[in-house]
Amino acid sequence: MVKKVVTAVIDKYDFLAQHTLFDALDDAELDALDAICEEFVFDDGAVIAYQRDVADSLYIVKSGRLFAHTVGEGGIVRDSRSYFAGDFFGDDWLFVPGVHPATVKAAGEGRLLIIESGRFLEFLEQYPAALDKLAPEYDTVGERMGGLSDEAWAEAQKSRLRAERTSAAMSLLADELVELEVRRSHWYLLLRILAPAVGLLVVPLWLFAIVGNQPPESFWQGSAGWIVPGGTALLFGLWLAFQFLDWWNDYFVITNKHLAHREFSLRTFRTTVIKIPIDQIQSVAVVKPSLLANLFNYGTARVTTAAQAGAVYFDNIDDPQQVEEVLNRLRQRVMALNAALAQTMMRRSVEGHFQVEPGYDVVAEDEAEDEEWTLPPRKTLADYWRAFVRRYQGRVEDGNVITYRKHFFVLLQVTLWPWVGLMGLLILNWVLIGMFDFAWRDLTVIDTVLFLILFAWLTWQVEDWRNDTFQLTDRYVIDIDRRPFGFGESRKQAELSNVQNINSDRPNILATIFNYGNVAIDTAGAQAEIVFESVSNPNRIQSDIFRRRDQYRRLQTIKQGDQRRKEYAVLLDVYKQATEQERIPRRTPTEENYE
Fold first, then answer.
1. Which residues contact 181 (CB under 8 A, 6 or more apart)?
2. Range of the domain at 139
3. Do 123 and 63 belong together in one domain?
4. 368 pLDDT exceeds 50?
5. Are residues 28 and 116 in the same domain?
6. Which of 197, 319, 386, 591 to pair with 221, CA 20 to 30 A apart?
7. pLDDT tens for residues 297-323?
8. Contact of 461 with 414, CB cutoff 8 Å
9. What is the mean pLDDT of the chain?
């Protein structure tokens, strides 16, 4: 089928720059947006989108007209509308995938711009200031004049929360939106600070009262009498601040992909982040254990999961029913998206089998002029230094493989004594030569032997640190324990599809200050868990693994169903051939059969 190209009035960049959605963006942002926006040409009657298919893109009509209709039960059209040049739909799908509510067809020839969600989120990662420029704009009578729709702007605010939370101790994925974030109840905080608050107000005053009743020759008189009351007030104040900070740094987050519990212990400076995928949730139970809990509407939401963690508790939070409501809504969304994905993949399989051409074709971009071939630049000292740093840095991404090493602070710990030995040898030589008039030649052999021993020890420790790596591929998580210079190796690995739960942990104050810790990976079956020990930025690694896990499971689902969908397409082909040849008898009786 030959496509008739409709001549566009303006090119894609100028159209985006003049559109009410993007007219506030600057030149650099428009250039980046133009690069991720694809232009298509369509024929009359072409189907642009099917009802109940997966929706993950913004559609903008550049020219022509589109017609959308929603079909309800019994094949009755429930809703319909037209989209003309400049109209758009699906801006909320830029932030969270959905399901097409209607079938969209072309009413004539025209052109269409499509921006895919994943690429748009990457655009916002690169240009975060662009999000505020997409805010809805209204005239004096409340009519929307530009910007995103209200639904899309609400999802965009969840994206803003994701960006803020990513900069804190818990890292989220690029397409992860914060649906709910809560701390423990203020009533719970009140109970925690009640004792130190009362002590702060009562005990120092009581001690000051005692001062006034003492005889003049007493120790309490004068400036010395302020020490005990003042010190007591300071202790109660520190206790009060401790309870508040310990409450403030703990929170619970539900996103469109995970639920997470961050717990920070101010006593040990230990930070623990538990993240559970939404698809691992089995049930949610709400408990209000006392009369006060019911009166003030706070309690615990107990989330049962399929992971080895068993259950996650959102304890002592206000309105715990909202956790149940949000999780049930997200689970329903996941089920709807899974059904939509199955329909989309089935459609593509059938259309591919029957070689059905799509209703619209991409408009090819102007080919760039070939650049003249030149010799690659010569490597400089900076290039060699970057290569050396890459060899020892904590996170290296090479193609589909991400390699992690233990934190640099761990290297300093294991090489401390070799460095102490080398510095001690240097100081000893200085003392022997400078103070005891030893000849340098008398120390050469001993120095050389000691130096070689210490240097070999240092080299061994550095290589032992460098060789202990953790890897994340597009299929496995791998823990590699390799001895230096080929003296042995052991490894544990688990397939990403078996990963159920991933917990990150910064166990002490040094780990909190230098941002390193452990990542524990729970897997299905009897295999022991895999632990990435003392790695840099454990929360980012936790997010990396979840992202790769989701990608791998998505590919597995598509691959496992691909053969089945091909068989269904062949079945439909055989049925169509048999029907056309009138070889299949009628299954429903006609009126003649009843006479």
1. 161, 165, 251, 252, 253, 254
2. 12-167
3. yes
4. no
5. yes
6. 197
7. 889 998 888 765 567 888 899 988 898
8. yes
9. 80
Single out the residue in 198, 230, 248 at which a domain terminates: 248
Helix spans in 470-583 (H): 509-514, 538-580
Q: In angstroms, how far is CA 409 from the centroid of its own chain?
A: 26
Residue at a domain's end among 211, 228, 248: 248
CA distance 61 to 37: 13
Q: Establish if 332 belongs to a structural domain.
A: no
Q: Map residue 164 onto helix, strand or coil.
A: helix
* Helical residues (DSSP H) of 102-251, grouped into ranges: 117-126, 150-166, 186-212, 227-248
Instruction: Note whether 142 and 203 are same-domain residues.
Output: no
Query: Structural domain tally of the chain?
Result: 3
Tens digits of per-residue pLDDT, 204-248?
Answer: 877 777 665 555 555 445 555 567 778 888 999 999 999 999 898
pTM exceeds cut of 0.70:
no
Rg (CA), the chain: 33
Q: Is 106 a member of any domain?
A: yes
- HSE at residue 267, side-chain half, CA atoms within 13 A, is 1
On whether both 163 and 73 belong to a single domain, the answer is: yes
| 160 and 24 share one domain | yes
According to the model, what pLDDT value does residue 433 have? 65
Strand, helix or coil for residue 390: helix
Specify the pLDDT at position 62: 93
**110 within domain boundaries:** yes
Pair (142, 214) in one structural domain: no
Distance between CA atoms of residues 50 and 453, nearest Å: 72
Residues 116 and 64 in one domain: yes
pLDDT at residue 499 is higher than 80: yes
| Paired strand residues for 60 | 88, 113
Examine the domain organization and report whether 23 and 95 are in the same domain: yes
Residue closest to 515 by CA, chosen among 539, 481, 492: 539
Q: Is 42 exposed, middle or buried (0-12, 13-18, 19+ CB in 10 A)?
A: buried
pLDDT in tens, 425-469: 888 777 766 665 555 555 567 777 888 888 889 888 888 888 888
